[in-house]
Design brief:
Blueprint lengths: L15 H14 L12 H8 L3 H13 L3 E3 L5 E3 L44 H17 L11 H14 L9 E4 L1 H13 L5 E6 L3 H9 L3 E8 L2 E2 L1 H7 L5 E4 L13 H13 L3 E5 L24 E6 L11 E4 L5 H11 L5 H12 L2 H23 L7 E4 L2 E5 L6 H10 L5 E2 L13 E5 L5 H20 L1
Parallel strand pairs: 4-5, 4-7, 7-8, 8-9
Antiparallel strand pairs: 1-2, 3-10, 5-6, 9-10, 11-12, 12-14, 13-14
Helix pairs in contact: 1-3, 2-3, 4-11, 5-11, 6-7, 6-10
């Protein structure tokens, strides 16, 4: 065969043997060296390149380790007849995880987007000063292991806040700092050691909850909700052996009703009598635009059966990925062990910053300002919708617009996204499409001025066109 032709960088960072190996490997993989081709002998290639025979031998040995060449003793070294398959490179590697839930992570929030706080209402200057101080403090403490349950100063402030704002009395030892709601749910599922694989979930419910349960090996059982929240009697009828229920008691996600006192008592009695557990997803804390949020379900729990989960994603920022769970006293030790072994609390500067934000009263003032701002934006949207035939009501921080059953709400949401809008379709929140209501959730948090008017006008046109098809 003809001589191999490539150059070597004798002053480069890579060794000469590695450069030879890489050049021959590229020639084989790109098809310039065919299967069965005989490579030059160590001596011939060494003379050609002006290197020692030992350098060439090292390169050939590494090519053999890569299964690209095979040595046949005195007969020479040949390109392998069966080359190892290269890993298939597809577009899947660049896809977002759970694409139905996480979209446009690199872009700013869009009009009608659900689950993100107002970008223009956040106290950036104040927060930056707090973060700078706390980052310096965190750097000064880098030589110690942090408490896997989270910094004590933050757990104390969360316990104090919950006692005032949510009516939930707990000690800092019952508070575990987590990586958002998903992190708290994962820890809870590991900690509880359930015998039954069936878990009650509201129907409709946050799709991530069903997905998380399935990934953890559990079977989510959808339990219908009505005007009073989850139907406990139907839950007993559908899955009497279940040992866990996951509920959004203060504001049902996505429909917005509160779990009534009667249903709360039914749920707690069920948990006590069946040695079951209830996970309370308090996803909006006290961000309720009409009146004051009801006390947390866990505040009524006198038997230690409720695990309360909250986050700062919707009240401060989703980029914090900072949440917490409050466990009954009997589970405090196990919860700490589980966190330490599987998912210790991280982001020390953010923990310290949130603790200061809470301690100095900034958090409660911020929530009050946001409630006023969101109410104004809700009212502005309702004014634009005046005269619309759609049934509409507030569900959390979103306006819920009902659509006819023959309209494809997912398709409308997809078309809206192409136009720079981000309403959330209602039907995917239901366990089965056959029982799903059609509708759109219109987040009100980032609706301002001209963007609101233009966005709603375009969205109304999409809805009208879908109804005519």
């Amino acid at each position: 065969m003809s001589k191999l032709r490539f150059s070597l960088d004798r002053h480069g960072s890579r060794s000469l043997a590695e450069q030879i190996r890489a050049n021959i490997s590229d020639a084989i993989r790109q098809g310039h060296l065919y299967e069965g081709a005989r490579l030059p002998s160590w001596r011939d290639l060494a003379v050609q390149l002006g290197v020692s025979r030992g350098t060439v031998k090292t390169a050939y040995d590494r090519l053999g380790d890569d299964q690209l060449v095979i040595s046949k003793g005195s007969a020479g070294t040949f390109v392998a007849s069966v080359l190892p398959a290269l890993p298939e490179i597809t577009d899947r590697a660049s896809q977002l995880p759970l694409p139905d839930l996480y979209q446009d992570l690199d872009s700013a929030p869009k009009p009608f987007q659900v689950g993100v706080p107002a970008q223009d209402g956040f106290p950036y200057k104040l927060w930056s000063r707090i973060m700078l101080r706390c980052s310096r403090q965190a750097v000064a403490e880098t030589l110690r292991y942090p408490d896997p349950r989270g910094e004590l100063v933050l757990r104390k402030e969360i316990a104090a806040y919950l006692s005032v704002a949510r009516g939930l009395l707990c000690s800092p030892d019952q508070v575990i700092i987590t990586n958002g709601y998903a992190g708290a749910l994962g820890l809870a599922l590991h900690m509880l050691r359930l015998d039954s694989q069936r878990v009650w979930v509201e129907d409709p419910c946050y799709p991530l909850t069903r997905h998380s349960l399935s990934l953890a090996g559990y079977n989510p059982v959808p339990i219908p909700v009505d005007g009073q929240g989850i139907c406990v009697e139907q839950g007993i009828g559908l899955a009497a052996e279940a040992q866990l229920a996951i509920v959004t008691a203060s504001q049902q996600a996505p429909l917005g009703m509160q779990l009534s006192l009667a249903r709360r008592q039914e749920l707690l009695i069920w948990a006590r009598e069946n040695a079951g557990w209830v996970i309370e997803d308090d996803y909006l804390s006290e961000l309720q635009l009409s009146g004051r949020a009801p006390p947390a379900l866990a505040s009524l729990d006198h038997d230690g059966r409720v695990i309360h989960i909250g986050t700062f994603s919707k009240t401060i920022s989703p980029r914090l990925r900072l949440g917490f769970m409050v466990v009954p006293p009997m589970l405090a030790s196990r919860a700490g062990d589980t966190a330490g072994a599987l998912s210790p609390a991280s982001a020390l500067p953010s923990q310290l910053a949130v603790a200061e934000f809470l301690r100095d009263g900034h958090y409660l003032r911020h929530i009050r300002r946001m409630k006023r701002l969101y109410a104004q934006r809700r009212n502005a949207l309702l004014e634009l919708m005046e005269g619309s035939a759609c049934v509409r009501k507030m569900a959390g921080l979103s306006l819920l617009v009902d659509l006819p059953d023959d309209v494809d709400d997912v398709q409308i949401a997809d078309m809206a996204r192409e136009a720079g809008l981000a309403p959330a379709p209602l039907s995917p929140w239901f366990a089965t499409r056959s029982n799903a209501r059609k509708g759109l959730l219109l987040g009100v948090t980032n609706l301002t001025g001209q963007a609101l008017e233009e966005g709603y006008r375009h969205l109304a046109e999409l809805i009208a066109c879908s109804g005519e098809q």
